[in-house]
Amino acid sequence: MTLLYVGGSVPLPWSIRMKIALGAAKGLTFLHEEVQRPVIYRDFKTSNILLDADYNAKLSDFGLAKDGPVGNDTHVSTRVLGTHGYAAPEYVMTGHLTSKNDVYSFGVVLLEMLTGRRSMDKSRPNGERNLVQWARPLLGDKRRFYRLMDPRFEGHFSIKGAQKAIQIAAHCVSRDPKARPLMSEVVEALKPLPKLKDMASSSYYFQSMQTARSRTIQNAKNGNRTQAAFTTRKGTPARTVSSQTSAQASPNHYPGLSPQPQT
Ligand SMILES: Nc1ncnc2c1ncn2[C@@H]1O[C@H](COP(=O)(O)OP(=O)(O)OP(=O)(O)O)[C@@H](O)[C@H]1O
Ligand SMILES: [Mg+2]
């Protein structure tokens, strides 16, 4: 099997991002719901999603995976391991691990794919460093959903799909683990998304909103990175996608998710 890692410079289009999300969700569904002894993956994050040439996602790094609870147990008690920015709050607080921790992490990754932001980004202003914290107020707001969307889509994302994906991500990162969906439900919800074609770029509403937004940004000129990204000229290079840990990582990229063939 050839597993490919990622790096590259072109932002991935909507259909491919959603294909990757779907593939990764299927991987977690398999571990949680389709094997005899359920497994909690525990370290679900972008850098552990490997892609092949067709963007089929494979989960790597089972080093932290745990057998799920057996019998009447509701959780496994563990030392809290995993990656900051992806672990569910109740797991961080109590060490009680359930598959709902993976669901939370999946929500974070889905948000990374939608927003183009990293789960933790210290180069951003206070209040924007933790992706979930930044996104939360916008997650339930259907009218302002586009503020979450990666500016590098340049409007080439499905409006219905974006709303649906945001809704899924919001469920996954629910503070209450019981409110989080099963991964099989996430798979079902994600299935239609890669193929949706109601692109925001062709909607009059989105275009006028975008124009108004760049005007505000021009006026504000406060150097905020996200806003700056909205004014990025088409075809501007420097969209390096590298691993999350890379010091040169672009603040807007979502790490580990664009193809760069290795062997
Ligand atoms: N089989 C592989 N083929 C190509 N690239 C890989 C492979 N395994 C890992 N990588 C890439 O190498 C880098 C380092 O991976 P590694 O698993 O050591 O760290 P990580 O994923 O950032 O953190 P963690 O140790 O929590 O998994 C990551 O960017 C990862 O995507
Ligand atoms: Mg890894």
UniProtKB/TrEMBL annotation:
A GO MF term: protein serine/threonine kinase activity
Regions of compositional bias (Polar residues) in chain numbering: 218-251
Keywords: ATP-binding, Cell membrane, Kinase, Lipoprotein, Membrane, Nucleotide-binding, Serine/threonine-protein kinase, Transferase
Recorded topology in the membrane: Lipid-anchor
GO cellular component labels: plasma membrane
Chain intervals for the UniProt region annotation (Disordered): 218-263
Compartment list: Cell membrane
Entry protein name: Serine/threonine protein kinase
